[in-house]
Amino acid sequence: MASSAELKLRMLSGSFTIHRLDPLMAVPTAVRECETHFIGQTPEELSIVCPSHIEVMYAKSEPNWACFRVEGPLDFALYGILARISGALAAQRISIFAVSTFDTDYILVKEADLERAQKVLMDQGYAF
User: Fold this and answer.
1) Which one of 16, 18, 57, 82 has the minimum C-beta count within 10 Å?
2) How far, in Å, CA of 117 to CA of 30, rounded?
3) From residue 23, how far is each of 29, 40, 98, 116, 128 by CA, in Å?
4) What is the pTM for the complete model shown?
5) How far is CA 14 from the centre of its chain?
6) What is the DSSP string of the chain?
7) Residue 80 has what pLDDT?
8) Do 91 and 127 meet the contact criterion of CB atoms below 8 Å apart?
9) Which residues of the chain have pLDDT under 50?
10) For position 59, what pLDDT does the model report?
11) Domains of the chain from N-terminus onward
């Protein structure tokens, strides 16, 4: 387990929107061309997280999210990283949307909660 003092968080610039589409919809080309985007698909839904300036038609959308990443790459032997971050934020009633990649984790918080989330995490020993 890595301590929070060993983990650094980096803010991504810009605002993000979380979209939900029908699972049979195609991922818009503009999304795939974004530097940072996340796509998840199941038989029930197609979820896309991308910068808010990208228009995604026919989607149920939740705008105004800020995103930070845990600086990686993270070793698969590490555990509890998301649990500690999400637990600290949940204790302060700050909702998150988390996405993981092979190398690291990304945590999105509503922009209205960003300053409070940063303070909570810095109080836990995380550096931005």
Assistant:
1) 57
2) 30
3) 16, 10, 20, 35, 36
4) 0.90
5) 13
6) ---GGG-BEEEPSS-EEEEEE-TTSPPPHHHHTSSS-EEEE-SS-EEEEEETTS--TT-EEEEEEEEEEE-SPPPTT--SHHHHHHHHHHHTT--EEEEE-SS-EEEEEEGGGHHHHHHHHHHTT-B-
7) 87
8) no
9) none
10) 84
11) 4-123 (3.30.2130.10)
The whole-angstrom separation of Cα 108 and Cα 70 is 11
Tokens of 85: 């971050």
- Encoded tokens for 11: 């803010």
Cβ contacts of 47 within 8 Å, gap of 6 or more: 18, 19, 20, 21, 38, 39, 40, 41
The tokens for 3 are 């301590």
**Of 7, 11, 115, 14, residue with least CA distance to 63:** 14
**Phi-psi region for residue 34, left (φ > 0), alpha (ψ -120 to 50) or beta?**
beta
Burial class of residue 16, CB neighbours in 10 A (0-12, 13-18, 19+): buried
Indicate the Cα dihedral angle 111, 116, 120, 125, nearest 10°. Answer: 70
Nearest of 52, 56, 54, 65 to residue 106 by alpha carbon: 65
